[in-house]
Write a structure and sequence with these properties.
By secondary structure, the protein is α+β, with helices and mostly antiparallel strands. The protein is 20% helix and 35% strand. Strands 8-9-15-16-13-14 form a six-stranded mixed sheet, with no helix packed on it. It is globular.
């Protein structure tokens, strides 16, 4: 009798302790899952934003604060799904979202070859800045905060819970690779894309043979901003010491 009561208590407790948020499934009209679809949650009160990608089965799950949100679901070549949802305390909303092809967008993409918001190449994750920037970012740190999977904690950057150990610009160390210095000084509007390099090794021939814990960021600049970057280097570089002969 005591065991039955205890199990009943666990069931009731589990039902009342659920955190609020949204989970669901993204598919096309043929019921096939859409992988890496982008979900953008905009809090209508605070204007804060959260981004999320569907997994390799089209599923997604996210915890949200109580409030009203605009949800925009995007997938390359498909019409956006836009809806408003309201998150209540201890309630998880289930959404099954169907996206439909947009012939005009498909035709345009074939001509222009616009890049996706994010792509994965083996151990490298590439974020395209213009797909996430909304115009209020001043420094690199504010841009990184909008990338799914990346978080900025003080002067540290984490990728899926692991720390970034080196920062490069155009494949070269930015001031000895200091992450803190880079995220607080590089202008956000100069960034074209950001590469997250997992299992990073400075020795080129070990890259595909040695698997470590080091993760590096490599920032790619917009062509028109390369000159600005060189000027930043001149301003921030230490003045070389001079010696005089006696």
């Amino acid at each position: 009798m005591k065991k039955i009561f205890f199990l009943f208590y666990l069931i009731i407790y589990a039902q009342t302790s659920v955190c609020q948020g949204v989970n669901g499934y993204i598919k096309d009209k043929t019921q096939q899952p859409l992988i890496s679809a982008t979900l953008q949650f905009i809090n209508l009160q605070t204007k804060g934003e959260k981004f999320l990608f569907s997994d390799n089965k089209g599923n997604f799950e996210i915890k949200l604060d109580v409030g009203k949100y605009k949800l925009i679901t995007r997938y390359l070549g498909y019409k956006n799904d836009v809806r408003e949802i309201e998150i209540s305390s201890n309630v998880v909303i289930e959404l099954n979202i169907t996206l439909y092809e947009d012939e005009n967008i498909i035709h345009e993409v074939e001509i222009i070859a616009a890049p996706p918001a994010m792509i994965q190449k083996k151990d490298t994750t590439i974020y395209f800045a213009d797909s996430f920037a909304i115009g209020d970012e001043r420094k690199l740190r504010e841009l990184l905060e909008k990338f799914p999977g990346l978080t900025v904690e003080g002067n540290k950057v984490m990728f899926k819970g692991k720390p970034i150990t080196k920062l490069m610009v155009e494949n070269k160390d930015f001031f000895t690779g200091s992450v803190a210095f880079g995220i607080n000084n590089l202008p956000a509007d100069a960034v074209s894309s950001v590469e997250v390099l997992q299992n990073y090794s400075e020795v080129a021939f070990l890259k595909d043979k040695f698997y470590g814990d080091d993760i590096a960021l490599n920032v790619k600049l917009k062509k028109i901003k390369v000159t600005l970057y060189l000027e930043i280097l001149k301003v921030l570089s230490p003045i070389p010491k001079t010696t005089t002969e006696s």
